């Protein structure tokens, strides 16, 4: 309906009213990775509530306000200032959250198996897009937060990370630390030794390995 309305407006030469968001609807839908029905959920003319449309209106108003604030703060004209758009936050998903936030929530609530499965699914769908950061540091950061209390979950995430980044010494370091939280120093030592095969001059790994060997505990 939106596209058809815009085509009619273009044909008859009609100009949109000031503040009318219709000319941007296609761009907004693409920014959220949705179709028109995501917001226009009720049958036309039914009078039924459409809460997502209300949210969209509020967000459009917020975006306009942000752009006005950016222009005021930078002293730049609208044409020269960096413009805040829906895509700035949403990046192709309806609810904009960082990947580390999504995986951390799933890991805490449902465990490592669910988190690993979710990561694989999101990566298969969104890798190569601007939506999520699938770099090696994302899972490392999550693993670091869970190492002490839930080392097995951290190990599971680092094994997953090493599937995609087999030369990631940082992942090996994080996994080795998680094994020390399980009092499995032998495995941790083996992992650090493997890390040195990749980066023989890595002083941090060398120091960790030397320290671990000096007080290696027996399980």
Mean pLDDT: 88
Percent of residues in helical segments? 55-70%
Terminal CA distance reads 68 Å
Oligomer: single chain
User: Treating each run of at least 4 consecutive H or I residues as one helix, how many helices?
Assistant: 11
Number of strands: 0
Structural class comes to mainly alpha
Low-confidence blocks of residues: 1-19
* Radius of gyration over C-alpha positions, nearest whole angstrom: 25 Å
User: What's the shape?
Assistant: elongated
Strand content: under 5%
Task: Explain this structure.
The protein is mainly α. It has helices spanning about 1-10, 25-30, 50-75, 85-90, 100-110, 110-125, 135-145, 150-165, 170-180, 185-200, 205-215. Helix 5 (about 100-110) runs antiparallel to helix 6, helix 5 packs parallel to helix 7 (about 135-145) and helix 7 runs antiparallel to helix 8. The model is unreliable at about 1-20 (pLDDT under 50).
């Amino acid at each position: 309906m939106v596209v058809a309305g815009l085509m009619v407006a273009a044909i008859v030469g009609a100009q949109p009213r000031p503040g009318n968001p219709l000319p941007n609807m296609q761009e907004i839908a693409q920014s959220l990775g949705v179709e028109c029905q995501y917001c226009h959920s009720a049958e036309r003319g039914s009078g039924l509530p459409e809460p997502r449309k209300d949210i969209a209106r509020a967000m459009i108003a917020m975006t306009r306000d942000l752009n006005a604030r950016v222009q005021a703060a930078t002293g730049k004209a609208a044409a020269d200032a960096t413009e805040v758009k829906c895509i700035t936050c949403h990046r192709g998903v309806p609810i904009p959250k960082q990947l580390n936030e999504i995986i951390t929530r799933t890991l805490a609530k449902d465990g490592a198996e669910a988190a690993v499965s979710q990561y694989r699914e999101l990566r298969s769908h969104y890798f190569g897009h601007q939506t999520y950061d699938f770099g090696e540091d994302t899972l490392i950061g999550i693993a670091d937060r869970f190492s002490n209390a839930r080392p097995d979950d951290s190990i599971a995430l680092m094994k997953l990370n090493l599937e995609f980044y087999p030369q990631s010494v940082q992942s090996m370091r994080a996994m080795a630390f998680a094994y020390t939280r399980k009092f499995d120093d032998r495995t941790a030592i083996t992992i650090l030794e493997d890390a040195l095969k990749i980066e023989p001059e890595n002083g941090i790994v060398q120091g960790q390995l030397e320290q671990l060997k000096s007080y290696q505990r027996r399980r």
